[in-house]
Structure formats: structure tokens, C-alpha cells
């Protein structure tokens, strides 16, 4: 035993020493700035690309920062003492459709104009007395829609002045309805958040919060036309106000005013405003969350208590929360907060603070919350001391809004430099082609002007960013800043040996992707609050954390409870009562919504009580083991699409078409979505959600190439005609291929197979059909994209789509979400259409493709099959799916938008109309593959065929025939194993094989 303890201690010591060494090494290697001394300084060097005349961004508007910089250099100044208020009904022109007059809205008498439909608009004439900067604001009233923020675009004299003007958010207001509710385990849950109606005023400002102040619009003296366009969601407009910029006074000026007015500090007062009790918020995703630090208020060691606010969801520019509080006397107060900011490694987060709707002084526009891996107390102030806030006796509101302003210029510089790298890569590709010989002597310096100088100047751009980040308070040792160091050093390394560029094109592409992810990551400024502090000056501040021994005791208690507490149950857990057991393979946040819907809607309507348990997503073996042990639930949700047939062949599931209303329920989905769940004449699952492949394209770039929106490829022949044009201009077409995930190969091949009229199997799944003429032609078409047309075998489509290197390509639902939420500069410049297809003899285009999602199924061992079917019908109904999708998006944001398989529910969810229309058009051709025993060999060998043909140059027929032989062996083996005869009927099912569960 002593020997063991000695070895254990030695091992721990070695691990600690190794950890300290790695931490030291990581810290020192990232901050070696001596390399910059070797970088030459270039003066008066043109670092623009030779492609600048056809720059992909020439059709894109400049950013707001560049717009302001251009006008500042030309001598533009703020105007003074001007204000023009325009009633919304005083329009000079409106769109023929979508604009509507509303009367006596929200307590406001008279008529106002509402923009109800996407692309509706109203124009107004404004008259300004002098050249200079003006700001614009608007009263607005949100109307019932799809719960998303109202988005408007602004044109001045027919043009968008900068790209942020195409997407300005006007947030809705949300409040909790009622108090939090508790399950029968004592755990606290968020109350529902409903929209609070009311008129609001907001200046036109950056949706992402990357600019501190409202936008300044440069206008020349005279008359101008202001057009406000509806991008998303209906809302009424009150007054539109055009005015000279308003500069908030500095704190020093405010302090002088305090002294002049004789304001005095209050005494003996301290108030903790519990952050979880926010009275209003801009987004329903902002909610109460749990924290287990013992000093978090309140704390319950025995159950979940939602004792803090914000966290990962309170991160995007423009999101705000508001709290009410009351002070006993007029005077000067300090304000602070107990917060956690462990989300941005080494980077501070920022919030603006307003009191009673006003900014108290300029510095309140950007309070900084430094990074730390523990709770902290923020005492709002600067290096000269804490700020004093004057508050009148009585009630007040304090609002905190996400602000990214300090990082805005830094993130833009990284984006610009990434664009320069992209342009340089395109120049290289024009010289070397898309697949250059890495050993060739390309003499790039002769073909590309200022190549070395441009590389060194990009390195200096990155170094400037590094120094700026340090000034902003980024901590040394941050792993995030190392990304910029690596980019800087890579540019220097390439500049020193430009002959290596053709061999390093892949690394350069990876660098662009990592920089894109870096920018997106730092644009999210998450913060968690426990409480706000309002107290008298001189009073002591609370501690940020409990003492170490208290935290250790709490952790020990939680650890001890983990041996007895069941963490899989969600919401009300019923004991020996007659209940339906439902297992859900999704995240806990998702399952909590399902359980809340069950308790609020399903159980009161049907009287059926339901226990819901969480199981790990994508670990379907748990269901297999549970069924083997006789512990299977009645219903399982979130089941991967390939799984139901594995259970059905073993006689483990209920055949749903034995229920008399099955056909009516199946009508909720596209017929092709049900194919994977059919076996031996039965139907064994219902789809919950569906993935989908679509064609994404950049309107601006394709227009420059002479491809109008009406000419976007409809067929694969048209795609093949487009690819050479793209490649001649240093661009490429994208088709997905995931070499590290062979399971996706079958989905990548399926569109070509189905569009050529082929199938994966014949003879009821007894044999592979991949050697049929249609399948061989499909394989030729698929692999030919990579062999004959040399499109990239692997690429980060999202980032290369943004950079313009891949202005068109096929991608799935996740790309749609990314482009919708994280590419504001492309607003209005990208579109989505159904994927290309094959033209049929009748002139129609076959666009068949699938998108296997998750399913719900009923176990045959259940003794409550009728109740289980009632539950599954309710869950897949349009009403339930709409509510779940809405609640999910309210909880987790647009990133979690629910791609329901229910066609009617999809139409109701908050997608933009043009996007819904494109998806529904694609769904007209929706078709999924058949799932058969041994089908995993099909997946494996389709990936192998691609590798053999594309990477090893094997003849298509040979590669396919070799794969088909192996697939057929496995199909035959599996059918024999489960006693399935040639006619495709099951013998004696699972009982004859010891339950059929190997």
C-alpha cells in the first residue's frame, strides 16, 4: 500500500510539473515579439490585389467604420442644433403591398403606418440645413409575428450607405408571466416568457454592438429620400427623428455638475438587485439559470435553484435586460455587480448601462468585465476611483446591453486582412491552377505584384491587432490570442520563402477558416450576473466567492448526492402511479421544454401522466441494452433515423400502421421521409425533424461573372458549365465531402443516385443495386466533380462563402443557420434555392435528395401502446411542433431553430418567407434511402468507392463492383442471421433467436 501511495504521489508530482511546464511554454511561445524586428517596413507600397477591379466586395457596401473613416478624411463633422420629426403617415411613397394603416395603437391616438410584410417599404423626405453627420431614431410598436426581433433596412437616396444599414434590429420586449414553477423534486423552472407590448424608441445602431454610438449618416445640405424597408416581422412606426448627433457628457463633466448642484453621498444603504428577477428583456432566450457557487443568491444545496441570469445566451450585440429598484433618498450612490466572465479566454466582456432610459455619462457606454475563472465583484469606476450615480428618491430602472464596441475595429481589421489573404490566394490559383505541383518553380514574385511586401504588411496588420488587444486588457497567456500570433508568424514565414506557397495553399485556407471562427467567437460577449449592487459610498463590498473550504464542502455534498439522485428524470417524476415512460436522446434544455409542454398541454388534455428521462444523444446502444434487459421505455424520441429498422427486424417495435388513423398522421410529412422506417410491410417510426440540402449562392459575385439570379444553375449540366468560369477567376464550386466521417458519404451520393432514377437496393433489400446502370452513371457524376472538374475535396464552405472563394455550393441546414446569424455583411447578397437536378423527358427537373433526421418510436414491450400512440400523435402534430420550435428558439436562440419534419409546422415557424418557399420546393422532391439489415456496409463501401476513384484513380466500374460484392456478402449474412427468407418475410421473429438481441 505504501509503495502504491509513493508511486501515486510521484505520478501526481510529474503531472503537475508537466502542466506547469506546458503552461510556461505556451505563455512564452505566444509572446515572443522579437520576430517583428526582422520584418522590413514598406512605405508607399500598393498592397491592393491585381483582382481589385473585380474585387468580390466591390458590389458590397463598405462597413460603417470604413464609411465613417472615408467621410472623416474628407473633413465631415457633426452638425449642431438640428432636429426634424416626421410622422410615419407623412410618407412620400409606400410599397403597393404590405404597408398598412393602424389606428389608436398601444394607447397612442391617431393613425400610424405599419410595415406588415417582407419587402414592404415607406419613403420620407428629409431636409437638412448643412453638410455633415446626422443620426436617426424611430418610435416603433411590434405587432404579432413569429417572435423574432423586428428587422428593418435603411436606404438614403436609393442606396445603402454601409452594409449594417441593411439589417438594423428593433428588439421586442419580453417579460415573465407568473412566478417560477417547481417540480415535485423541488427543482425550479423558468416561467414562460411572453411578449410585452408597448411603444419603444431606438436610434439606428449596429445590430452586432460593434459600434459604441448610434450610426452617423453623412448628408449633404438639401433634400434627401429616406426609405425604411421591412426585412423581417411586422411593426408599426410612430415618429422618425432625424437630428444632430448627441454626445453624452464625460464623467468628469457630470461630477462637476454634481458639485455645482450640491449632491451628497447617501449613508448606510446597500441593495442587492437579484439579476434573475429581470423585469424586461429584449430576447426570450434571456432567462434564469442555475449556479452552484455557495454564495450565489439564493442557494439551495438540495435542488436546482435558478439564481442567476444570462450566461451563454446573453452574448449578442443589442441584447438587453432591465431591472427595477427603489432607493430611500435622493443622493449619490455606487453601482456594481457580482458577475462571472469565464466565457472569453483572457478577453474582457462589455456592457452599456442606462438608468431610467438615459446614459448617465459617456463612460457608461462600455463598462468592462474582465475575464476570470471565478465569480468577481465589478465596482463600476476607472483608475481615478469609483463612479458616483445620482438617483432621486423612489423607483428606477437600470438596463444593461451587450456591447462589443471596443473590439469592433479589431475584429474588422482581422476580417479585412483575412480578405487580403483570400485575394492573394486567388491570385496564386490563377497562376498555378487549383491543383498545383508543389515542387514546380512557379516564380510567383514575377506574376504577383508586391507579393513579399504584401505578406509582410499583413503580418504587421496582425501584430497591430495583438498590441491593440493588450491595450484593451486581454490577459497574457490567452489561448485565443495565440491564433493571431500564429497568423502573423505564418505570413512572415511565407514571405521569407514564397516558393512554398503552392504547397501551403491548404494551410492558408485553414488559416482563413480559423480567423473566421476567431472573429465569430469574439463577437459573442457572454456574461452571467448574480445580482446588481446599489449602495452608499464608503460601504464595504461583498466577496466574489465563498472561502475555499465552503466551496469544497459544497462540491463534496453534490458528489455524495450523485450516488443516490436520479439525474435522468426531468420535471415532475411520478412514482408508482400509472405513467407513460418516454426517453429522449437530446440535451437537457431541449427535454425540459418537452416535459413542460407535456405537463401543461398533453396531460391535462388526455389525463395520461408521463415520466420523461434524458439519455445521451447519439448513444442508441442504451436503448438496445434497455430492451434486452426488459427495461425499455414505452416511447423513445430523438432516435437516429437508421435505428428503428434495427429494432423492427428484431420484433422490438410496434407497427404503427396497425393504428386506424396512421395514414392521417403520416400525411403530416413528406412521403419520402417515411421510407427509412418501413420494413416487411410495416411502419415503425415517425420523423421528428429533417435535414435538407440546398444550393447557396452569392448574388453579387455571380452577377459580376455574368450570372444573374435567373441564371443560377438548375441542373448539374449547368453546374458543370459554371465550374470552369469560377476556377478561371480563382474561385470554386462546393459540394460536401467529409473524409473523416464516412457515414456522411451515403448522403452525399444519394442525390445523384435518386435523380438518375436509381435505388440503393433491389429484391427487397436482398442485394445492392449500386452496379445498376443508373447507379454507375450517378457515381460517375459524383466523383467526376472531384476528378474531372477538380473541385476542392474538403473545405470550410461557410468561411470560404463569406470570403468569396466559393460563391456557390450545396450545403445543409447548419449552413443556412450560420449565414442567417453570423454573416451580417452578406445581408441581401446571398440566396438559397433547391439543389440542382436532372432534367426529365417531360421537362421537369428531378431534385430528389434526402435528409435523414431523428424519429420517435413505440416499443413492443410496452403495455400502454394505445397511450403511447396518443402521445406520439400529439408530439408530431403541427401545434406541438410549432410550440416546441418556438420555445426552443426562445430558449437557445436562432442557432437552435427546429427543422421540424411536419410540413404545416414548418410554415408556421419564424423562417423568412423566401427561405420557406425554397425549402418547401425542395421538399417536393424529398426522398430518403431504404434502411436494410447490413446497410452499414453500403455506407462504408460508398466511402471506399469515392476514395478508390478520386484518390487512387481506380476505374469506376471496378471500384463499384468490388464494393457491391462485399455489400452483398454482408446483406446475405445478416438476412441469414435473422432468418429472413428470399421473399423478404421474417421467420418466427426475434424469439427464435434468443430474443434476437446479440
TrEMBL record:
Transmembrane segments: none annotated. It holds the Pfam family SBP_bac_1. Coiled coil: none annotated. This is Extracellular solute-binding protein.
Amino acid at each position: 500500500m505504501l509503495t502504491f501511495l509513493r508511486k501515486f504521489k510521484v505520478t501526481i508530482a510529474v503531472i503537475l510539473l508537466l502542466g506547469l511546464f506546458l503552461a510556461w511554454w505556451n505563455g512564452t511561445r505566444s509572446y515572443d515579439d522579437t520576430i517583428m524586428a526582422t520584418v522590413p517596413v514598406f512605405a508607399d507600397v500598393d498592397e491592393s490585389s491585381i483582382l481589385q477591379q473585380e474585387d468580390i466586395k466591390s458590389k458590397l457596401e463598405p462597413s460603417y467604420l470604413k464609411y465613417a473613416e472615408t467621410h472623416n478624411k474628407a473633413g465631415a463633422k457633426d452638425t449642431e442644433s438640428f432636429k426634424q420629426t416626421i410622422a410615419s403617415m407623412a410618407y412620400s411613397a409606400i410599397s403597393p403591398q404590405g404597408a398598412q394603416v393602424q389606428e389608436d395603437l398601444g394607447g397612442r391616438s391617431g393613425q400610424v403606418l405599419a410595415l406588415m410584410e417582407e419587402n414592404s417599404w415607406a419613403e420620407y423626405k428629409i431636409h437638412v440645413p448643412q453638410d455633415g453627420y446626422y443620426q436617426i431614431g424611430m418610435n416603433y410598436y411590434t405587432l404579432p409575428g413569429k417572435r423574432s426581433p423586428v428587422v428593418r433596412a435603411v436606404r438614403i437616396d436609393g442606396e445603402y450607405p454601409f452594409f449594417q444599414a441593411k439589417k438594423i434590429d428593433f428588439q421586442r420586449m419580453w417579460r415573465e408571466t407568473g412566478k417560477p414553477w417547481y417540480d415535485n423534486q423541488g427543482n425550479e423552472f423558468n416561467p414562460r416568457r411572453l411578449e410585452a407590448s408597448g411603444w419603444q424608441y431606438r436610434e439606428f445602431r449596429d445590430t452586432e454592438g460593434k459600434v459604441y454610438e448610434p450610426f452617423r449618416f453623412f448628408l449633404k445640405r438639401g433634400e434627401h429620400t429616406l426609405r425604411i424597408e421591412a426585412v423581417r416581422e411586422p411593426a408599426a412606426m410612430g415618429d422618425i427623428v432625424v437630428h444632430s448627433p448627441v454626445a453624452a457628457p464625460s464623467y468628469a463633466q457630470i461630477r462637476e455638475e454634481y458639485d455645482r448642484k450640491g449632491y451628497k453621498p447617501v449613508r448606510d444603504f446597500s441593495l442587492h438587485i437579484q439579476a434573475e428577477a429581470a423585469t424586461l428583456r429584449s430576447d426570450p432566450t434571456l432567462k434564469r439559470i442555475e449556479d452552484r457557487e455557495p454564495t450565489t443568491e439564493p442557494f439551495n444545496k438540495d435542488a436546482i435553484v435558478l439564481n442567476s441570469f444570462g450566461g451563454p445566451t446573453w452574448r449578442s450585440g443589442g441584447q438587453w435586460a432591465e431591472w427595477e429598484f427603489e432607493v430611500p433618498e435622493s443622493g449619490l450612490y455606487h453601482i456594481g455587480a457580482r458577475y462571472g466572465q469565464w466565457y472569453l479566454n483572457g478577453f474582457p466582456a462589455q456592457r452599456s448601462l442606462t438608468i431610467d432610459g438615459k446614459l448617465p455619462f459617456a463612460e457608461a457606454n462600455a463598462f468592462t468585465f474582465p475575464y476570470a475563472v471565478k465569480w468577481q465583484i465589478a465596482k463600476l469606476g476607472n483608475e481615478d476611483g469609483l463612479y458616483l450615480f445620482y438617483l432621486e428618491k423612489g423607483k428606477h430602472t437600470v438596463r444593461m446591453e451587450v456591447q462589443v464596441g471596443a473590439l469592433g475595429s479589431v475584429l474588422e481589421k482581422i476580417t479585412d486582412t483575412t480578405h487580403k489573404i483570400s485575394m492573394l490566394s486567388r491570385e496564386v490559383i490563377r497562376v498555378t491552377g487549383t491543383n498545383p505541383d508543389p515542387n514546380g518553380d512557379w516564380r510567383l514574385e514575377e506574376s504577383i505584384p508586391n507579393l513579399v511586401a504584401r505578406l509582410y504588411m499583413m503580418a504587421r496588420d496582425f501584430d497591430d491587432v495583438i498590441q491593440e488587444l493588450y491595450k484593451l486588457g486581454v490577459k497574457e497567456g490567452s489561448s485565443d490570442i495565440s491564433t493571431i500570433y500564429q497568423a502573423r508568424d505564418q505570413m512572415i514565414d511565407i514571405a521569407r520563402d514564397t516558393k512554398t506557397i503552392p504547397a501551403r495553399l491548404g494551410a492558408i485556407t485553414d488559416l482563413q477558416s480559423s480567423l473566421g471562427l476567431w472573429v465569430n467567437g469574439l463577437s459573442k460577449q457572454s456574461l452571467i450576473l448574480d445580482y446588481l449592487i446599489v449602495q452608499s459610498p464608503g460601504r464595504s463590498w461583498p466577496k466574489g466567492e465563498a472561502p475555499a473550504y465552503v466551496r469544497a464542502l459544497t462540491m463534496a455534498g453534490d458528489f455524495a448526492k450523485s450516488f443516490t439522485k436520479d439525474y435522468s428524470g426531468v420535471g415532475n417524476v411520478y412514482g408508482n402511479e400509472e405513467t407513460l415512460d418516454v426517453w429522449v436522446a437530446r440535451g437537457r434544455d431541449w427535454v425540459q421544454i418537452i416535459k413542460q409542454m407535456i405537463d401543461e398541454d398533453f396531460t391535462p388534455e388526455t389525463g395520461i401522466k408521463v415520466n420523461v428521462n434524458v439519455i445521451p444523444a447519439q448513444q442508441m446502444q442504451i436503448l438496445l441494452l434497455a430492451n434486452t434487459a426488459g427495461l425499455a421505455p414505452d416511447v423513445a424520441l430523438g432516435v437516429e433515423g437508421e435505428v428503428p429498422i434495427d429494432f423492427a427486424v428484431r420484433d422490438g417495435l410496434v407497427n404503427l400502421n396497425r393504428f386506424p388513423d396512421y395514414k392521417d398522421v403520416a400525411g403530416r410529412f413528406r412521403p419520402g421521409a417515411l421510407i427509412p422506417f418501413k420494413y416487411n410491410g410495416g411502419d415503425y417510426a415517425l420523423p421528428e425533424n429533417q435535414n435538407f440540402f440546398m444550393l447557396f449562392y452569392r448574388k453579387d459575385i455571380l452577377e459580376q461573372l455574368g450570372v444573374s439570379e435567373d441564371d443560377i444553375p438548375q441542373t448539374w449540366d449547368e453546374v458543370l458549365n459554371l465550374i470552369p468560369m469560377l476556377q478561371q477567376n480563382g474561385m470554386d464550386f462546393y459540394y460536401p465531402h467529409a473524409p473523416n466521417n464516412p457515414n456522411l458519404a451515403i448522403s452525399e451520393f444519394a442525390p445523384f443516385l435518386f435523380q438518375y432514377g436509381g435505388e440503393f437496393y433491389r429484391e427487397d433489400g436482398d442485394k445492392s443495386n449500386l452496379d445498376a446502370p443508373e447507379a454507375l452513371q450517378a457515381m460517375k457524376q459524383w466523383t467526376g466533380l472531384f476528378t474531372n472538374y477538380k473541385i476542392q475535396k474538403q473545405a470550410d464552405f461557410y468561411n470560404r462563402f463569406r470570403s468569396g472563394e466559393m460563391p456557390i455550393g450545396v450545403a445543409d441546414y447548419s449552413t443556412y443557420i450560420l449565414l442567417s446569424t453570423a454573416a451580417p455583411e452578406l445581408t441581401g447578397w446571398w440566396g438559397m434555392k433547391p439543389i440542382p437536378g436532372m432534367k426529365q423527358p417531360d421537362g421537369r427537373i428531378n431534385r430528389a435528395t434526402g435528409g435523414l433526421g431523428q424519429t420517435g418510436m413505440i416499443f413492443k414491450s410496452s403495455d400502454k401502446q394505445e397511450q403511447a400512440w396518443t402521445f406520439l400523435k400529439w408530439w408530431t402534430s403541427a401545434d406541438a411542433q410549432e410550440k416546441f420550435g418556438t420555445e426552443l428558439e426562445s430558449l437557445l436562440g436562432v442557432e437552435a431553430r427546429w427543422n421540424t419534419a411536419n410540413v404545416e409546422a414548418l410554415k408556421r415557424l419564424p423562417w423568412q418567407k423566401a427561405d420557406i418557399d425554397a425549402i418547401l420546393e425542395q421538399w417536393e422532391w424529398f426522398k430518403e434511402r431504404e434502411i436494410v439489415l447490413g446497410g452499414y456496409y453500403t455506407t462504408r463501401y460508398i466511402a471506399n468507392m469515392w476514395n478508390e476513384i478520386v484518390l487512387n484513380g481506380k476505374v469506376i466500374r471496378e471500384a463499384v463492383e468490388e464494393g457491391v460484392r462485399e455489400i452483398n456478402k454482408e446483406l446475405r449474412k445478416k438476412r441469414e442471421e435473422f432468418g429472413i427468407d428470399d421473399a423478404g418475410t421474417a421467420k418466427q421473429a426475434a424469439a427464435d433467436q434468443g430474443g434476437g438481441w446479440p
